[in-house]
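QA checklist item 7 of 12: single-chain prediction sanity check.
[x] sequence parsed
[x] length recorded as 171
[x] structure emitted
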Amino acid sequence: MQDSNMKKIAIVLFIGMVAILMVGCGRYRSQASYEMPSQVLSANYDGSYVIRVRIRARNGAIAFTDGQRKAVKEVLFDGVAAGSNGIEALKPICFDKNIQAKHEDYFNAFFSDGGDWTKYASLKDKRTGTTKYERDGKQMVETVVVTVNRSELKKRMQEDGIIPAQNMYEL
C-alpha cells in the first residue's frame, strides 16, 4: 500500500514538473522583431525625406512623438536604410560616432520634450492607412510615416558648430 502511494506521489510530481516545463517553454517573443530599421520612402524637392519608422509606445500620441524624434535621431547619427522604391539610403549628417558625447548638453536640450527637433520633423506626408498598430502585451508597436527636413537640419548643425560647414571658403 505504501508502495502504491509512493508511485502516485512520484507520478504527480513528474506530471507537475512536466507542466512547469511546458509553461516555461511557451511562445518566445523577441523584441528584436519589432526593431526594424527605418526606411526612406521618398525624397521631396525641398530637401526633406519621408521616412517609415517603427516605434514601441504605450499609446498612439506617444508613438507619434517618439517616432518623429527617432526619425530625426536616425537622420543625424545613424543614417536611414533605403526603401523598396529605389530611393538611396541616407547617410548620417554627423559622421563622428562620439559627437553625442562631445556635445551632450546641446543634444540633451535639442531632443528634450518640445525641443528644437520638432522644427525638423512633421507628419505632413502621413496618409490614411499608413499607420499600423500591433499589440505586444501592454505596449503598442506602431509604424509611423514621418517627414524630416534633412537640409534644414544639416544647416542648423553647421550654424551651431556641431559639424563643420562644407564649401565655406575664407576670402
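[x] summary fact logged: The first strand starts at residue 39 and ends at 43.
[ ] second reviewer sign-off
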